[in-house]
Amino acid sequence: MTAAHTLQATGLTLGYKDRTVISGFDLTVPPGRITAIVGANACGKSTLLRAMSRLLAPREGQVLLDGRQVHRTPAKELARTLGLLPQSPIAPEGITVADLVGRGRNPHQGMLSRWSVQDDEAVAAALETTQTLDLSDRPVDELSGGQRQRVWIAMVLAQQTDLLLLDEPTTFLDVSHQVEVLDLLTDLNHTRGTTIVMVLHDLNLAARYADHLVALTDGRVHAAGPPGDVLTTDTVRAVFGLESQVITDPTSGRPLMLPMGRHHAVSASA
Amino acid sequence: MTAVEVVTRSRIRRGRRRHLVIALLVVLVGATFAVTLMVGRTVYPPADVVRVILGEDVPGASFTVGRLRLPRAVLGALAGLCFGLGGVTFQTMLRNPLASPDIIGISSGASAAAAFAIVVLGLGGAQVSVVAVVAGLGVALVIYLLSYRDGVAGTRLILIGIGIAAMLDGVTAYVLSKAPQWELQEAMRWITGSLNGSAWADVVPLLAALVVLGPALLGQARNLAGLQLGDDAASALGVRVERTRILLIVAAVGLIAFATAATGPIAFVAFLAGPIAARVTGPHGSPLVPAALVGALLVLVADLVGQFAFGTRYPVGVVTGALGAPYLIYLIIRTNRTGGSL
After folding, report:
1. Which value, to the nearest 10 degrees, does the dihedral of the CA atoms of residues B78, B79, B85, B89 take?
2. Which residue of A has its CA nearest to B228?
3. Contact B204, B278 (CB under 8 A)
4. For residues B175 and B111, is the Cβ–Cβ distance under 8 A?
């Protein structure tokens, strides 16, 4: 596995029917690093991920993977390099964890090819990495939210792609499971050099886990770069329309945003 | 035990159950098929049946078994396979057991068209099949377009389909009311489905359809499994969603329509086969082959029951209808309880 893949969007304009969601968007994903995309609700974060992974054709501009347009790349071929975990995938009724994770092997299998040793190895590795091996015979329906999210991540891991896009992988999880999932993704990035691009809701978790932070507003990049440069009171005001303080997180040394709101401000700091 | 061994063993264990169930279903279909050939007003021993099949002339048996029972059994088995395959394809693709072609109007469309072609246009044989297939595809397209609003939602599609089915059943009833009185037996076929009067001429187009469309569907099994995870997840796994969906719809509608043109819309076989197959094989592996076998078994058993369990002979669809209706009610009650809307 190498992390030499480059993923780049240039002059991207995206939309549904007569609504333009993203316009004139440029982004270069740093290879082998973790990129987090943040922004207010409905600012086009998910739309962007869908376009980067070939699910949505751009109106203008292009997405290039290693210099090749993803929309011209055959679906299966792309799926061997670039994986995507959508926001709310559906687990078929009664399916077991191992079977669901096995579906991630699809891009590596031909129409008539049999299940191979490599497939079993990939599934086993994905289950181990996500610590779901002991759940492998359980139906996915019976799992807790945190377990289920780990299983979905295991499925995209079984796909064995060097690039991984995740659309809000921590939604609906309590804080300990959010941290667990993000730690897991960081492990992947550190041990295998997997390039990770994720949309995150929580600005502070994004600042803590990302090497590269992209703040979106109105379908454009407001700021992009290391979290220390991007997460400022100005960015928070421009992107979320919120007054805040940004301090240094004593745990990680990364920036930490404290929203102000209209109440609770101690007069000295206001 | 290493992780790989754990994964491999549990996969093999689940696969073994699936293979066992499939083998058992094959045996059951074969046994029911044999019973259909042997039993009737006159019971023939297996030896006679085998001799007839091998082409020998056996007094009495050659006509009863060779001309009456054999085409009936073959047609029943083929239609069951087609209904089972077509039904489970729709149910899996739309992720809802209610989204079966016999619930959402595709069988009704094929049936109405077949009845129209025979009674009004005076067509027969393969021509009827073609009209039924075209009508089935037409109905599928109409339902799809009517329920399309930023993508197709299962519930909307099902409700629209149920409405269309009711309308088309009305068309069938109207067409049949124009048919001559003496064709009542024949008319029943287009309402509930029947194997009465099966002939080799009915078998040929159905067999051809199954030979062409069956493998086409089975070849899409992996893509169908991808689609179950939702369109986005499927695309991300390299499935070409729209292309796969069109292929699946055309093949499944084709199978349903050809079977309907041959036997009429045998009630609820498409609807029942998939869920029964899922119950007996478990969720591991593709549901296509088990559902096809369950479909064949359902038709053959129901036909035996319809012919011999009561004083009078009932068409096969009456029996499968009596089986399917309670399951339909159960499904609706269950989805209501779990808070779903269909």
Report:
1. 160
2. A92
3. no
4. no
Q: Calculate how close chain B gets to A198, using CA atoms only, in Å.
A: 15
Q: What is the pLDDT of residue A110?
A: 81
- Distance (Å, whole) CA A33 – CA A210: 8
Contact in structure between A52 and A197 (CB atoms under 8 Å):
yes
pLDDT in tens, B9-25: 989 988 899 999 999 99
Query: Does B45 contact A at CB distance below 8 Å?
Result: no
Tell me which residue of B255, B259, B213, B254 sits closest to B75, measured CA to CA.
B259
Distance CA B25, CA A118 (A): 32
Tokens at B57, concatenated:
């002339």
Q: Which position has the token pair 């002059």?
A: A11
Q: Which residue has the tokens 């389909």?
A: B161
What would the pLDDT profile of B187-233 be if each residue is shown by its tens digit?
A: 777 888 889 888 888 899 999 999 999 999 999 999 999 999 998 99
pLDDT for res B337: 65
Q: Which chain B residues contact residue A50 at CB under 8 A?
A: 232
How are strands ordered across the β-sheet holding A68-69?
A: A19-29, A7-16, A60-65, A68-69
Say if residues B74 and B30 touch (Cβ distance below 8 Å). no
pLDDT, residue B190, reads 81
ipTM for this model: 0.89
Q: Would an 8 Å CB–CB cutoff place B123 in contact with chain A?
A: no
Separation in Å, CA of A120 to nearest CA in chain B: 6
CA-CA distances (angstroms) from residue B38 to B196, B317, B333? 17, 22, 41
| Closest by Cβ to A106, choosing from B7, B8, B237 | B237
How far is the alpha carbon of B280 from chain A, nearest alpha carbon, in Å?
Answer: 13
A contacts of B281 (beta carbons < 8 Å): none
Mean pLDDT by 10 residues, chain A (270 residues): 77 86 90 94 86 91 92 93 92 92 92 85 93 93 90 95 94 88 93 94 94 91 93 93 92 92 66
Instruction: Provide the terminal-to-terminal Cα distance of chain A, rounded to the nearest Å.
Output: 50
* CA separation for the pair A6, A80 (Å, rounded): 15
- Residue B156: pLDDT band (50, 70, 90) is confident
- Residue B317 tokens read as 């669809």
Mark yes or no for CB contact A92/B283 under 8 Å: yes
